[in-house]
Amino acid sequence: MLPVRICSNASRHVGCKVAPLTRRALPIASKYPFQKPTSCDQPKRSLSTSTTPPTHPEVIFSGIQPTGVPHLGNYLGALKQWVDLQNLAPPSTELLYCVVDLHAITQPQDPNDLRRRRQDTMAMLLAVGLKTERCVIFEQSRVAAHSQLMWVLSTLAPTNLLARQTQWKSKLAESEDRSPLDPDGSSKLKLGLFSYPVLQAADILLYGTTLVPVGEDQVQHLELARSLAGKFNRTFGKILVVPKVKLAPAKRVMSLTNPTSKMSKSGAVNSQINLDHSESEIRLRIRGALTDSIPGISYDREARPGVSNLVEMIGNMTNRDDFEVIARECEGLGMKEFKDRVADSVVEGLKGIKEEYERIKGDAGYLEEISRIGAEKANRKANETLGKVMEAMGMGVNPAPSSS
Ligand code: AQP
Prior knowledge:
The protein is mainly alpha-helical. It has helices at residues 28-31, 72-88, 101-104, 111-127, 145-154, 159-163, 166-174, 191-194, 196-205, 219-236, 279-287, 305-317, 323-329, 335-349, 353-361, 364-392, and strands at residues 13-14, 26-27, 59-64, 94-99, 136-139, 211-214, 244-247. Helices cover 45% and strands 7% of the residues. The longest helix has 29 residues, at 364-392. It comes from Arthrobotrys musiformis. InterPro entries: aa-tRNA-synth_I_CS (IPR001412), aa-tRNA-synth_Ic (IPR002305), Rossmann-like_a/b/a_fold (IPR014729), Trp-tRNA-ligase (IPR002306), Trp-tRNA_synthetase (IPR050203).
């Protein structure tokens, strides 16, 4: 596949006022054709991790949990890349983006909150610039095949491998209800959380996915998906496609208040920048980011996690990965001026998203229609794979008996 150039200006839409379902937002590039030309001149990135051209069209799948308003980590680690892929992939590439609500319920959820957050997450996917005419955007719980394939895969998934997943281990470590009767602190941790990566494998494998764009925190889960696909194929015949990981350029955006942990929806107040924050809120939070007392600005993730996280933010918002160079460009700035520069790039990079989100999110009828159409398309493809899997295992509808 030819190398492709990333231009963040072309990656999103900003608000326009036409009727639901027919509205078409203007790409930022066409609204501001001469702005930020340098961001298009940044290093070239390739769509595929492989240098050999794929023999089959790519299928790209990724998901986001409706557990709160997406933050800058979700944006740089996932959503921005989803939009870039949408804008750069050849027409033969299929793109599926999913609101993974079945994953969200691995933590307790209030039903009314979950209903609203699913809708809000759909709105955010549209607000960042995903287009329903190019991508299948849908909610996981509307496609029953995800749970069905998960069950099948869970019969192949070794529990010792699941117990080694970092995300499970960190939830185990966090668990609050340790008591002498529960030394592992595991009683609040449920089977669904333990088997979360198996459901994730089912999400991916149902669609013949070749490429999964995610942040670094998901790489271990994807290894499991690859291994389950391989195991299934070796046992029952080659039906499942073994996917590749497409790591986002922003591998891990760190918390503003604790820069050695990743920015997370469930993190402390002031630790995230959410995509619906106002410019003043963004500036305030970046000004309050934890840094250090070492003079000057430099890039060293180990020694200066806070400053380096902010340097990376400038880079990732402007499609640059020469973080040392960025730090040198900021060398002479005081910490306050440096943070203002970081805030400028974040505010500029997120421009238009909040307004578009506010405009779409209240339109329940429109969002329901988008979800319904997305689920219809996803069901078609997912059921095809599930049918083949069931048949190969000797289940489901029996093939017609041969006449001989
Ligand atoms: N800090 C991050 N840096 C880079 N990428 C990130 N992602 C999440 N946090 C960062 C990527 O965002 C995508 C969707 O994530 P998710 O919402 O499904 O789940 P998550 O990783 O559990 O997100 P949070 O914010 O950390 O939620 P909580 O607090 O509920 O656990 C994924 O591709 C992920 O890599």
